[in-house]
Amino acid sequence: MTRLPALLLSSAAATALTGAAHAQELNALVWCDHTDPALIEPFEAAHGVKVNLREYEGTGAALALLEQSRPGDWDVLVIDGIDVFRAVEAGILAPLDPADLPTGDFFPEVVMAENNSVDGVTYAVTEKFGYNTISYNAAKVDPADMENLATVWSEKYDGRISIYDYYLPVMGLAAMAEGIATADIGPDDLETIGGVLSTMRARAASVAGVVAAQTALATGEVDIVVGGGEWLTAVLAGEQPDLTWTIPEQGAVRWAQSIGVVAGSENPDLALEFVKYIVSPEGQARLATSSCFWGMPANAKAGDFLSEDQKAILRWDSQPDYLARSQLYPAPDADLDIEMQDLWLETLQQ
Amino acid sequence: MTARAERMRGWGFVAPALIWTLAFFVVPFLVMGAMSLATLEGRTLVWGVSLANYAELTEKAYLWRAILVSLEITLTVTVVSVLLAYPLASIIAFRVPPRWQRLALLLAILPFWTSYVVRSYAWLLVLAREGVVNQALLGLGLLSEPVTLANTRFATVTGFVHFFVMLLTLTIYANLIQLSPNYRRAATDLGASAFQTFCHVTLPLALPGIVTGAFLTFVLCIGDYVTPQILGGNTELTVPQVIMVQLGRRADFPLASALAIVLMGIVTLAYLASARWLRLDRL
């Protein structure tokens, strides 16, 4: 063999290997619950691929990252259910064929076709949901007091409360405490909501993110987390069974996260397979009990793959009641969003 | 070598630093400046020349409050850190035998070896109502019930001071160790007391190290997001925290950039105020 053909052959082999290597990688922009190896490794093993995961916080940050990326850099996006339309408007999500998605097996309330589709075209599918409500230490507070929002942030619990640091669910809870439906929140309601926030803020020891709120509850720094829920206390339940949560009589705010394929993905088929895996009963059970945070799977058939203990922690049997008593996150338009965020920051600075 | 060739050689030497500065400071700064003049209409970024983002500083009280909170915390941290770091650096430089000084410095900067975030969470546990401090004070009978230390400005300042005392100790030590002991001996021979020697000889000579460390403390502290977020419990917001909120959900890069430019303006003023004593070559 002369040197030139050998070089050509080796470079061709290198190109093929590189191509193969590229074809075997999937890049996903996700929330932390997707980074649990117990969730990802079965998919990687089944398809012989590597899934590269990057976490983000905040839809704005994710959209900015995607808009600055080259087409093909990303294959899968996990996004807040109420923000799917923003990703579609920005041209970030690719259409999905509803026939590929087992939404018929989902809890009907969380299919949320109106959130996951635009102009009749489906762009995402709900994968997980839960509640922003009241988490508390049952050994330190009277559980009966947690059944009414007014007593939760009453003088009795002054300095023993932490507020979850995200304005949409907390303002949603404040609205519900005043009898305002989250879907109906408008500029005229902000004064009322602001009053509730001020009361809440005055009683609170801190306004904390996920880890800080868990730490505060686990160390006894606070006894109640307003805006908490199963996603906050489930991972602590094994070691501290007194940490629990409830949905008060006024109801709770329901969060939902969706997953979709990024437009321009270089691996659209593999990306779709990943989405299908995540919403399959097995994938859903693993996602629901992720080491980062727990939450209800959208697919009701995931129950077949969860243990009785896991279902008890998720309050599986109470879901019909919880779903009926919860309202979806507030989904403000851009102008109202600014006003709500300003009100939130003003309250924090009080 | 001709003058032209020599010039080219000179450019060749400075080119890497020049390109680095252009790529990673000048260009990003210009982009940030331009972004601060853009606006967000709905959720669409509109490039242009508008002072609307700067006008918001006068219209929204929480933005002004964030600037004031940042300044108050930063100045407190800088002063407390200097007051704690100077004696420590002085003891290491003048009292610890030279052969032990390396070890003393190593011990002083040991906390640098742990993650900044982990260190902040560790402080949160230490200062918690059921943390080490409260339990110790309760055990000694100095308190009848736990006091709130975590999630306060006190906690933020404590976390910062723990970090910056190490930095300041290094800068002040580097300055003090260069001072000839003959200056202090001469002052003593001329009848100066220890206090007079400190005020009129040691302190003026140590000022470059103190000011350099204080300036670095100011710059790093006022731009920090992690410590106030973890230890302050969001009971009050600093400018970096407000910037993060603007970016998180709404991606309001124009307002975030305007706030960042304001921070740079404050840092520039701090630089101008301390430029007379800034001697980075003493480090």
Number of helices of chain B: 12
Looking at the chains present, what oligomeric state does this protein adopt? heterodimer
The residue-averaged pLDDT of chain A reads 91
**N/C terminus separation of chain B:** 36 Å
Helical content of chain A, roughly? 40-55%
Radius of gyration computed on alpha carbons of chain A: 22 Å
- Per CATH, the architecture of the largest domain in chain A is 3-Layer(aba) Sandwich
The residue ranges of chain B in which pLDDT falls below 50 over 5 or more consecutive positions are none
The top level CATH class name of the largest domain in chain A: Alpha Beta
Biggest beta-sheet profile of chain B = 2 strands, antiparallel
**Helix-strand makeup class of chain B:** mainly alpha
Using only CA atoms, what is the Rg of chain B?
A: 23 Å
Mean model confidence by pLDDT of chain B: 91
Number of strands of chain A: 13
Descriptive keywords:
heterodimer; A: alpha/beta; D-Maltodextrin-Binding Protein, domain 2; 2 domains; eleven-stranded mixed β-sheet; 41% helix; B: 283 residues; mainly alpha; MetI-like fold; two-stranded antiparallel ribbon; 73% helix
Explain what you see.
The complex is a heterodimer of chains A (350) and B (283). Chain A is an alpha/beta fold and 350 residues long. Chain A is built from 15 helices and 13 strands. Chain A has helices at 3-23, 37-47, 59-68, 84-89, 113-116, 149-152, 167-177, 190-203, 210-219, 230-233, 268-278, 281-288, 308-314, 319-325, 334-348; strands spanning 25-30, 50-55, 76-80, 117-118, 121-122, 125-137, 161-164, 204-208, 224-228, 243-246, 252-261, 296-297, 326-328. In chain A, strands 1, 2, 3, 6, 7, 8, 9, 10, 11, 12 and 13 form an eleven-stranded mixed beta sheet that branches. In chain A, strands 4-5 form a two-stranded antiparallel ribbon. In chain A, strand 4 and strand 5 (121-122) form a beta hairpin. Chain A starts with a helix and ends with a helix. Chain B has a single domain, classed as MetI-like fold, CATH 1.10.3720.10. Chain B has 283 residues and is mainly alpha-helical. In chain B, helix 1 (3-36) crosses helix 12. The two termini of chain B are 36 Å apart. Chain B has helices at residues 3-36, 52-59, 61-95, 98-108, 116-127, 132-139, 153-176, 181-189, 194-222, 226-231, 239-248, 253-274; strands at 39-41, 44-46. Chain B is flat and about 70 Å long. Chain B has a two-stranded antiparallel sheet with strand order 1-2. The longest helix of chain B is centred in the first third of the chain and has 35 residues, at 61-95.
